[in-house]
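Ticket 4471: requesting a sanity check on a complex prediction with pyridoxal-5'-phosphate. Repro inputs:
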Amino acid sequence: MTEQIPMSSPDISAAEIEAVNQVLQTRYLSLGPHIAEFEERFAAYVGARHAVGVSSGTTGLHLCVIAAGVGEGDLVITTPFSFVSSANVILYERAIPVFVDIDPKTLNIDPALVAQAAHKLTRGQGDKERGRQGEGETRGQLKAILPVHAFGQPADMDSLLDVAREYDLAVIEDACEALGAEYKGRRIGTQPETCNLKLATVFAFYPNKQITTGEGGMIVTDQDDWDTLFRSLRNQGRDVFDAWLNHTRLGYNYRLDEMSAALGLAQLGRIEELLAKRERVAQWYNERLKDVDGVQIPYVAPTTTRMSWFVYVIRLAPEIDRNAVMAALEERGIPSRPYFTPIHLQPFYRERFGYREGDFPVTEAVARSTLALPFSSVMAEEQVEYVCEQLVTVLRQQLQTR
Ligand SMILES: Cc1ncc(COP(=O)(O)O)c(C=O)c1O
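Returned structure tokens:
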């Protein structure tokens, strides 16, 4: 097999092509009927009262940070083991991300450490985190927790919601990688019944995601006031009763256009098929890699009653040179990626906040060992077979030369 295997691929059928074509034959390329229908079906699928379509996962998270009342100098507890935008959206409001280390197995934020951090920060302690606010800036408050369901595995939400209740914090769930995942039998996005918290969940639809709209995202919430606010903020700050050039508040153009919404609707209609295909590919990998020396296959927590496979990420034993493995795979037509690079070690976070290696040891150890292999719902079993065969050969060579 000499052809390059793609790292990821969208799964587009004739139904999606037809749906987008139909939109192109109407006058409504934005603010038309498809966005409303996509929102309605999406809310029903995840089990929330409201869904608001936005231009990306990042813009959805940004609007949640605003809705949570996070302002200049305020603090938001989040994970350093994520895609950079889950922390960037906090910076957009000139607030401070307070990173908390992760659980080494689930790779999600550690709720016990979140409870400790909330305790410290609400009692005027946590000077190190507050110190990151810089001299002379107003001292804000701890306002929210922003957990991420990394790689499609739900974070331990019950424990995190307990902390949020105790300290009166908003919760912004980054479910950009987790559409369809279930935690203790609840689908991610379903708002807990007893929950009188400020809570919203954000999904993303970039082409490597479980469903795609090209670019796009969706915020879901049970809170009527947040739903109204999100609709205004995404549409240049207009309230529903505002005239076209009336703007009640500072807003943005974070709208999702009609072609994207029609594509999303058609993909959502295939969601069970798409998730099942991803699950099958993950199982092909698991079967072939579970007993390979130097490889740890993905862990699925007992609270994860359904994993929504977003990527397939293995962990390599510390004695294996990951860069050499990646280079050898690349020569064989197989792309692979270290995933994630910790956010606190990104150059501008180091420069702005003074983070150094050693600040979040679990995240850093995990990040040194992870390797994402090619993964998508359209991958064939022979492709998985080829990737695994080549990986095993490369690892064997490495372990023998030690
Ligand atoms: C965990 C996480 N958060 C946020 C995002 C941002 O989503 P988008 O790329 O749609 O802005 C992504 C997407 O890659 C993600 O994986």
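Notes from triage: The first strand starts at residue 50 and ends at 54. Leaving this open until the requester confirms.
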